[in-house]
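User: Can you predict the 3D structure for this chain?
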Amino acid sequence: MTSVRTTTTSATAAPGRPRARFGDDLAAALLGTWVVGGLFLDGWAHVNQPDLETFFSPWHGVFYAGFIVSTVVLARLVTRYQRGRFDPALVPAGYGLGLIGAALFVLGGFADGVWHTLFGIEVGVAALLSPSHLLLLVGGLLMVTSPVRSAWSSPDLPARVPAARLFPALWATTLTTAVVLFFFQYLSAFVTRAPSAAAVEGPEGLLTTIAGVASVLVTNLIMVAPLLLLARRWRLPFGTVALLATTGAAAMTSVRELTLGALVPAMLVGGLAADLLLAWLRPGPDRPGAFRAAAALVPLVLWGAWMAAYAAAYGIAWPPELWAGVLGMASLSGLGLSLLALPPAVPAGTWDPISKA
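Assistant: Here is the predicted structure, written as C-alpha cells:
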C-alpha cells in the first residue's frame, strides 16, 4: 500500500506538458498541405520537365515557402508556453519531434542544394533515394505528423470522438500516407501499367509481372498500416478510408498528369465501401476479432475496386489466378499488419526480471 501511494503521489505532482489547442493542430495540418502540395508539384516538374537543371525552380520555391511558414507557426506555438528561456519540457505534447523535424529539414535543404550543385539534378528512382531527399523526408514527416501525436496523447480525445474534432489528426495521417506513397512511386499501384501489359515470355515479361504485383502489395501496406494504427486509438469516423485512399490516388496520378486517373474514383468507391464495412465491424482494441477481420477485408474491398476500374479503363492482361492471387495476398498482408498494430497479449509474468526460464 505504501508503494502504491508513493507512485500515485509522484505521478500527480509531476507537471505535464502543455497541450496544443484544436486550432493549433488544425493550423499545423493545413500548413502541412502546403508543404506536401509543394512536394508533389516539384515531383510533377521532375517527371514532366526532364530538362530541369536547377535547384532554384519555382516548384522548389513553393515547397520551401510552405516549410518556412510552417516553421514560423510552429515556433510561435512553442514560444507561447516558454518562460523566458527555452525549456524542452514546456514544448506542447506532440510537437517536440516536430521541432527536431524542422532542424532536420533545414539541414536537408542545405544538403540538397550542395548535392545538386556537385552532382546535378537526379532523375528517376535516384531522385527518390537521394540522401538529401531522404533527410528532407524524415524532417518533413516529423513536422507533418505533429497533430497526430498531439491528438494521440490527448486525454480529451476518447476512442469515440466526432469526426470534426479528429480532423487534424486524420488529415495529417492522410498527408503522411501521400508522402510515403510519393517516395515509393517506383512501386506504386497508381503508376504501374503492368496489369494491362501483354504477357511476354522470358525474363523481361517476368520482371514486369513481378513489378506489377509488388506495386499493388507495397501500396496496400502503405495505405492499410496507418488505418490500423488509427483504429488502435480511435473508432474510425465514417469517411476515413475514403479520405486517405482517394487523396493518395489523386496525388500520385496527378504527378503523371492523371494518366491513370480512372483509379481515383475507384479508390473513392472502394474507400466508401470499406468505411461501411468498418462502421459495421467497429474494430478496436476492445474488439480484436473485428480488428483482424477489418484488416483482412478492407484490402479486398479497396483493391477489388481498383481491379475493376483498371479492367474497365485500361484492360487487365493478368490471368484470373494472378489478379485473384494479388487480392488474396493483399488481404493476408493486411491481416499480418493487424498482428503488429494489435499484437496478442503476453502472459502476465513472462517478462518478470526475477522469473526463472
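The two ends are 29 Å apart (CA to CA). DSSP finds 13 helices and no strands in the chain.
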